[in-house]
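S., here's the first fold you wanted:
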Amino acid sequence: MIRTALRWLVFFSVWLLVISIWRRDILPPTSELNSVLLNEPVQTEITQKAFQTTRGGVTYTVQPLYDYDLVGLVVSKHDANAWWDYLHREWNDNLNVVDLCVVWGKNVKTGAYGDLNFSSGQFTCNYGSNSMEAFAAFDETAISNNHLLTDQTKLAKIMQKVRVGDQIHFRGRLSEYSHRHKGMAFKRGTSIVRTDTGNGACETVFVESFEIIKSGGQPWRSLVWVAAIMLVASIVGWFMQPVRFNDRMH
């Protein structure tokens, strides 16, 4: 009887784990979004000298261009520490911690993001839909792929915790940055408008503050852990059951 119950618990745990992992990154409806996400990013030109900073043993020169303040919904993410990301390693780019693809404004108001599919590459945010109507309703000037830079370990950890569906707010400076580590020349710029697309259209931001206004994916993110614990417990319970032998008469 106990073995039967444990068997069903294993099946249920696996089912719940699969469903939870699938659902945890589904984007929230507009009704769950904070009204501040309707605001456009704020960009202010500044005059600031370039400065140097070191991260991961590499010294970078950072040239700030504009103060930048953005509130939005994360629709896709790329972690620069991903095992398959070879470009950051090859270019010794330790300053770019994470890339966040974010929507705001009209796309939040209309919920147009809900009908599109989003994905991130090593330096790109891709989006599209099989529906021409859905794509036409999407405002391509209210989305940006943000290369987020920091030399602070605490800030890096916060940004790396961000998941698809989170509502975020960050402040920083749109910046160019470069290095000449071990004789290799590396330089990266930034977009300074929201109307451009393609190569060079991403915003490169040296982050000064970062806040997760509201986490998405609830309760599914919590259920991932619940399902995982249930699965481990049921498997352990199964193997702890005494072995039963069937006696046969000959």
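And the second, which I think is the more interesting of the pair:
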Amino acid sequence: MAESSLIASPPAERLSVEPLPAESPMARLRWAVVSWRLAAAMWMRAAMSYRANFLLTSVGSLLATFLDFLVLVLMLRHTGRLGGWTLPEIGLLYGTSSVALGVADVLVGSVEGLGQRIASGTLDVLLIRPAPALSMVCAERFTLRRLGRPLQGLLVLGWSMGALPIAWTWPKLLLLAALLVSGAVIFGAIFVAGATVQFWWGESREFQNAFTYGGATLLSHPPGIYGKQLLAGVTFGVPLAFVNWLPLLYLLGRPDPLGLPPAFELASPLVAALSVLGAALAWRAGLRAYRGTGS
């Protein structure tokens, strides 16, 4: 009974802070961040009530994610290269995609459970609260055990940076940092935009996962092993190529399989901003289409 009440909605008294004025977009953004932080803190306290379970699941998550990279290591031991890329170069692909997806999953990954709230009618409870519904849905069931993926990605990224014959100057390090931030924002936008499909198609969670978790798997392999139609789709359709492929082609000095202008390789921050705008518009459209259950 206690668990079901947690799933239904966070306690109202934990979210009693008055919202900031909504006259400006910055004020609304600040209030959304505050709302997410309060809800995430509540769910974290609930998770820490069972510390042994929290520790075991966190360690298990970290070990499970290492298996993905282990497969690449075993494969490269036999082939030496994959699509002309060495293991450290593929480690750079794997590390950046894992960190970007992992950070997005920690911050907004719970939004993929939107369909469950729509089906049960509990989304109505969030819509009548002064806190933004998107912040509440993104923070639901927040737990630090999800940090296993980005932490493992950072370890692989650090190893690959040391193994590559690259002089890591400040401009290159700033480019890498911008790549990670932009990639996390793009994945976060895909999480939110994909979840909004559930307003019309309640069983679309796996469809969304194909672009998030499936997208990270795609990006952990060299782009040259895929067909040009697929590369065009993840560049001009769902902008996964801007998460790490295009920036790393510039960083490593490798040619672009599509032959795009060099500006595309540095456009990840701009694409991240446009992705956020698209996700916001999709969320607003979903809320307008939602009729509620009257609960």
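Why I say that: The mean pLDDT is 83. DSSP finds 13 helices and no strands in the chain.

Talk tomorrow,
H.
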